[in-house]
Amino acid sequence: MKQKIPFILNGKDVSLQVDPLKRLIDILRDDFSMISVKEGCGEGECGACSVLLDGEIVNSCLIPVGTVAGSSIETVEGIRDSESGKRIIQAFAAEGAVQCGYCTPGMMVGAEWILRKYKNPTAEEIRIALSGNLCRCTGYDMIINAVEAAVKGGEL
Amino acid sequence: MSVSYRPATFDELLDLMSEKELIPFAGGTDLMVQNAAAGGPKFAGDVVFIAHLPELKGIRLEGDKLIIGASATLSHIENYPQVPQLLKNAVSLIAAPALRNRGTMGGNICNASPAGDSIPPLYVLGASFKLQSRDGVRVIKADEFFKGPGKTDRRKNEILVEIIVPLKEWNIEKYRKVGTRAANALTKCSITAAAKVKNGRIDDLSIAFGAVGPVIIRDKNLEKKLIGLTTSDLKARADAILKDYSALIVPIDDQRSTAVYRKQVCLNLLREFLEVDLGQ
User: Fold this and answer.
1) ipTM of this model?
2) B4-166: which CATH number, 3.40.50.1450, 3.40.50.720, 3.30.465.10, 2.60.40.10?
3) Closest residue, chain A, to B43 (C-alpha)
4) Chain A contacts of B8, Cβ < 8 Å?
5) Which residues contact residue B279 at a Cβ distance below 8 angstroms, ignoring those fewer than 6 apart?
6) pTM for the full model?
């Protein structure tokens, strides 16, 4: 049974007529072309589909779109042009934090969440914050270094 | 195809629950995985979203009790100052931040997995659950609520509204979860234990094991036999106590671990609690 679901996507008011039980990840990719949002496991264990929901990191594969009516959703497409987004992208490139790239959008959403949440996160806090984001290439150290570099890259 | 409802008020939710048979959907972090299908989740029935209702979300102190709304997220609980440390320890090791930002304690309870990590601390802390329907309110003790894997005492028209946690003074606490890795690992087995020790004497004691039986294992009669003893008594009797608990710990082999491993690890952890944690 389709319903009209309005929400805010990367700062813009949007709405669509949709079955409220459809997964947010599918809506973002198929209806709004937010293809930075990746599906890895589909079970909330890999973090490739991470988005910010009202500023908090969540797995978009586990969220029916009907539960986000009226909420704000942010993806890398919305984060990348901000000051912090630019710093994160630059730091990931400089630190070699990207290899195959599949986990990268989820990691960058995680990095943005960390930058908003902590003023001076420790390496341990960064690791805990990103503990739900899996990377099978880098071994994580370059990603942690990149987030630390993005944090140090100047005040917001 | 399932229909989903999003009641505007708690009153409307109770009406819906009395009129129809609905699957309460809070954070959905278990439901979305259990009902995953190609093209979107397929549920066995119609669904009612409840996580947006303010009546179910709050956490507050009421005298010597902490009241946790059933839809309070695990992150909220993890960061709420007055939450007992044992419960915080368990909740902060569930999955990863993104999941804790959505997953709720009410969901963890009603999903009734023997490996549900927030449940053993609720047994140890003597928590009870407030259930509400158009027929009225019931308060059920945690150790009477769970009937088996996925089975609880919740009636079809009831909503779990609040988790009531008595704030008692424990001075020795142990929570240890054994899993494959730190984040996102489901529990192979766990121990949750608390004691109040005064001048070397056990004034109060509570011990629970997770994921090693159809429901959480806690035996109040065994605990009663230990209360009143000294910590050196416990150390001396450790072998006998382990033998008593060994009869209660009845794990299974599954994809996560084996029965033999789970039982041995639980007994090792119990020995550590009796000889090391209580011996301090």
Assistant:
1) 0.95
2) 3.30.465.10
3) A21
4) none
5) B231, B235
6) 0.95
